[in-house]
Amino acid sequence: MRRSRWGWRAALSAGLLGLALLGATGTAARTEAPLQDAPGIAQVALADLPPEAHTVMRLIRQGGPFPYDKDGTVFFNRERLLPAHKRGYYREYTVPTPGLRHRGARRIVCGGWEPTVPDACYYTADHYASFRRIAP
Where, by residue number, does the polypeptide cross the bilayer (predicted)? Predict the structure, then answer.
């Protein structure tokens, strides 16, 4: 494989450009449109969700610690039921089901670039077959 003599210069330029794009908050500027819900997503009040969901929402806002290794990992939205966003925008969290020894089907999926300050969170009781937006 032939190496380009410009390879390291191009990488350096890209890195410097990335640094130049950093804002005052220290994060790269995002150019995505504001969050809009996909058609057919109903809302639900946090008070109407199981008590375990309240605990999970509190843990999300404080940054953990989470009981499951998978909590806080990227949710890929393969079902395409949530509004389309770039990879890494959505993260998933387990809502424990009393009496089960495994993770169960209940989840909260939050969207946003700062995990502790989500733009919106969604609840599913049927392992991503349907979602309801948790009212702010």
Answer: none
Q: Which residues are annotated as catalytic?
A: 92, 127
pTM above 0.70, yes or no: yes
Mention the CATH class of domain 32-134: alpha beta
Cα–Cα distance measured from residue 88 to residue 99, given in angstroms and rounded to the nearest whole number: 32
Q: Six-digit token pair at 133?
A: 């937006």
| Number of CB atoms found within 10 A of residue 72's CB | 19
Domain chopping of the chain, boundaries? 32-134
CA dist 117 and 61 (Å) reads: 6
